[in-house]
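Lab notebook, bench 4. The sequencing result for the construct came back, and we need a structural model before the next group meeting so we can plan mutations. Quick request posted to the team channel:

Model the 3D structure of this chain.
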Amino acid sequence: MMAASSSSAAAPCRFSSPLAAASRALLSSPTPTTRRRLLLSTTTTTIAAAMSAAGAAASPSSSSCKVVDSHLHVWASPRQAAEGYPYFPGQEATLRGDAGFLLECMDEAGVDGALIVQPINHMFDHSLVTSVLKQYPSKFIGCCLANPADDGSGIKQLEHLIVQEKYRAVRFNPNLWPSGQKMTNEVGRSLFAKAGELGAPVGIMVMKGIGLYIQEIEELCRDYPATTVILDHMAFCKPPTNDDEEKAFSSFLNLSRFPQVYVKYSALFRISREAYPYEDTAQLLSRVISSYGANRIMWGSDFPYVVPECGYKGAKEAISHVAGKIGVSRSDLEWILGKTVSQLFQGAWVTP
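Done. Here's the predicted structure in token form:
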């Protein structure tokens, strides 16, 4: 199935080498390498090498465009956690996710910048991510985590993080709403409206499936058209295998009728039913391009969770490989790999 070009023409640009060996980042982890991870690393390397030539056909062809990762996390190292950036109780990190490791991975993969999403490991304490944003202002921008507490304190915190700390987006995690409450409650509406007022897109993570939240998302989009929405990880839709899954995926595609809705083609390991390079997500990508257009789609790695799955470099290279399977044009691939997120967050990732 061929994915029609759906974005305005752009000069072709080369991003990085096509699929090659899986990222050495996997071996950089300080945690003991399990037998499963060693097997996965070996398999991923073999697959990536075999696909190198095929990936070249899908790779853009000049060096003028930035590659930007629209979805990743950083959190404190154990030493940083002990010295002033503690983990939220019960959310201690089990993977290496410090900024230094991330920068090594990005450099190896040829990724120019990223949107850092506040991790659950630090909950509503944004001090660690804020420190990284201040240290690398031309490399990263931030997406804060909405606090939907009943007392409404999260609204003032949101405004502070965006206005004073220069965060550019906010994440809604419906699992953090008080029991029995919806994202459309009074606090949720106020947070959503405030984000739109401040020009901050709202990323929505529907880890339990789009079907549970579709009505809430539609209501918010309809009532607050000035607020941009980004659906994380393709709204957690896997390739449909039955009528219920097809219905859920269709409802996700139907959100494209709201022009303010964007999609992250991210964390492929979460939405694929196959091993790396996640070729079954090609059917998802083709249909999303047809519904939304490539200029409303952005790739994301979900670092550091992706590292033990296929490596950071492998995650980035899988995008071009999958795109090549469905004939995505070079122009559309440019949008997905960096132009969409760069256009959405004007002025970001600019070197002084």
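The longest strand covers residues 140-145.
Will bring this to the meeting.
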